[in-house]
Design a protein that fits this description.
It contains 23 helices and 20 strands. It has 509 residues and is of the alpha/beta class. The longest helix is centred in the last third of the chain and has 18 residues. The radius of gyration is 28 Å and the shape is elongated. It starts with a strand and ends with a helix.
């Protein structure tokens, strides 16, 4: 009878949980019992591991095996525990010493021939292992570069269970058996489209720059071909490169979703995510029955979420955006657990003015369809959009105008404005104007004089602004001032912010 234990990691959303894997065999009818709330893929691990060990020359005893995954009350999902289960069974059957495998974490799927394969989510798994005090991790060679992004952990890439055995036997004998070092970590930065390619749309370009500088949400309404999608696709190029903590968070989410580049490099550019309008709530917001998977809002973390033809999305999908827009995270509740998924993104909505897309005198839609089209977007959702802009069709005269500024020129101004915001809010837990609570801007040293705030107060008295809308207009006004190098917003900046949110309010005021 033998007993051995080692470490593995399971995922809940994008957060890892360190798992102790214990294996023991005893006399009895041949069987393998797996305990610890394992899902279907995890329960099948012994069926993969036993033939893999046999094919690598390490047949395990024909006995009653018990494999325990602790803590037993936490659900375990996926095939990433295969390698740890294989190593624990190897040690329990004395193919390798149990003492050398105990402090090491193992992440990988095992094939029937004994090969070790990568699994999604290696980066957050290694982060969780490091947080649990583990200092050495064995992973599939194909995932070694991704695992090496975590500081303070020695990563050992392995290709087969035979390599694992040789590694541990050499370590137990005090000999040097060096596995291949993971390849050097590099950053992944895809080329970005140039803002200069957008024809005309001077007002929309300015609004895009304001949204990029302050982290504001944007809605574009206009006929097909006006350039709404082109503008949205160029927003990530105006945003600064991700700081290291943000880059690791984004890379971890992409790792869980299995959408990392083939080289497993760090994602340093803000992501751009554009789900189709037929997407389900689980695919956009996140969810799942057994395992909780991040949705498009989490994949767009620290980047841009673009919903083209926004009124065509399901109502529950659109209303599900309200929580992440306010809190920067999604909380998926199940009977046995709550999973938090990070989702701090910039939302860009694009819509035609009516179902036919023409709008105005050329519209052929019945009045009831035309009037009800944009009302598919609920008032509470629209109230959370900072900038709402009508985009007109491109004319032949626009083709004769000189090209506008390129992405690099506008991005430099955006970067300078963000540096001003970072300095202003350095004593508060905020980095961008869009993150500052309205109470901070309405009270204390950041409160604007009454003469400057007058347009907003007037719009609120007329019912054209809610309190949330007033707060968001204030944030936009601060961003307009930052782009102009002003220490504080002027009345013209407040009027500009109000015009970008509610054009009718400025005409009345």
């Amino acid at each position: 009878m033998g007993l051995a234990r080692t470490y593995a990691v399971t995922l809940a959303g994008v957060e890892g949980q360190l798992v102790t894997v214990e294996a023991q065999w005893a006399d009895g009818l041949p069987a393998t019992i797996l305990t610890g709330l394992a899902d279907s893929a995890c329960r099948q691990a012994p069926d993969r591991v036993r033939p893999a060990l046999r094919n690598c020359g390490m047949p395990v005893s024909t006995a009653r095996w018990t494999v325990n995954l602790s803590p037993a009350g936490i659900p375990k999902a996926g095939s990433g525990l295969d390698l740890a289960i294989a190593v624990a069974m190897m040690a329990a059957d004395e193919h390798v010493p149990a003492s050398v495998v105990a402090p090491v974490c193992h992440v990988g799927e095992v094939g029937l021939a004994g090969e070790v394969r990568p699994v999604p989510g290696v980066l957050p798994m290694v982060v969780a292992a490091a947080a649990g005090g583990v200092r050495e991790v064995l992973v599939a060679a194909a995932a070694a570069r991704e695992a090496a992004l975590v500081d303070g952990v020695r990563v050992h890439p392995v290709r087969t269970l035979g390599e694992v055995r040789e590694f541990y036997l050499a370590r137990a004998a005090g000999a040097s058996y060096r596995l291949a070092d993971p390849p050097p970590v590099v950053a992944h930065a895809a080329p970005v489209p140039d803002l200069a390619e957008v024809v005309g749309q001077a007002v929309a370009r300015e609004a895009l720059e304001i949204c990029a500088a302050g982290g504001h949400h944007l809605m574009l309404v206009g006929p097909p071909g006006a350039g709404k999608t082109m503008l949205a696709e160029r927003l990530p190029g105006l945003l600064p490169a991700l700081a290291e903590p943000d880059a690791l968070a984004v890379t971890a989410i992409h790792s869980v979703l299995g959408v990392l580049p083939q080289d497993g490099a760090l994602v340093t550019r803000p992501p751009f995510v554009a789900p189709h309008h037929t997407a389900s709530t689980a695919s956009v917001i996140g969810g799942g029955s057994r395992a909780i998977h991040p949705g498009a809002v989490s994949r767009a973390h620290h980047g841009v979420l673009f919903l083209d033809e926004a009124p065509e999305f399901r109502r529950d999908v659109l209303d599900g955006l309200r929580q992440p827009l306010e809190s920067g995270q999604v909380v998926i509740a199940r009977a046995d657990r709550h999973v938090r998924l990070p989702s701090r993104f910039q939302l860009v909505l694009a819509a035609n003015p009516c179902p036919c897309g023409s709008g105005g005198a050329r519209c052929v839609c019945p009045p009831f369809r035309r009037n009800g089209y944009l009302t598919r977007l609920s008032g509470p959702l629209l109230d959370r959009i900072d900038v709402k802009l009508a985009v007109s069709a491109v004319t032949r005269a626009d083709l004769t105008l000189p090209r506008g500024e390129g992405t690099s020129v506008v991005a430099a101004r955006v970067r300078a404005a963000r540096e001003i915001q970072a300095a202003r809010w350095r004593d508060l837990p905020y980095r961008l104007n869009a993150q500052v609570p309205g109470s901070v801007l309405r009270e204390g040293p950041w409160r604007l004089p009454g003469s400057v705030r007058a347009p907003l107060d007037r719009a609120m008295d007329l019912g054209q602004l809610t309190l949330r809308g007033l707060d968001r207009a204030l944030r936009v006004a601060w961003t307009v001032a930052d782009l102009q190098g002003q220490a504080r917003p002027r009345r013209s900046d407040v009027e500009h912010a109000l015009l970008l949110r509610t054009p009718e309010a400025v005409r009345v005021a």
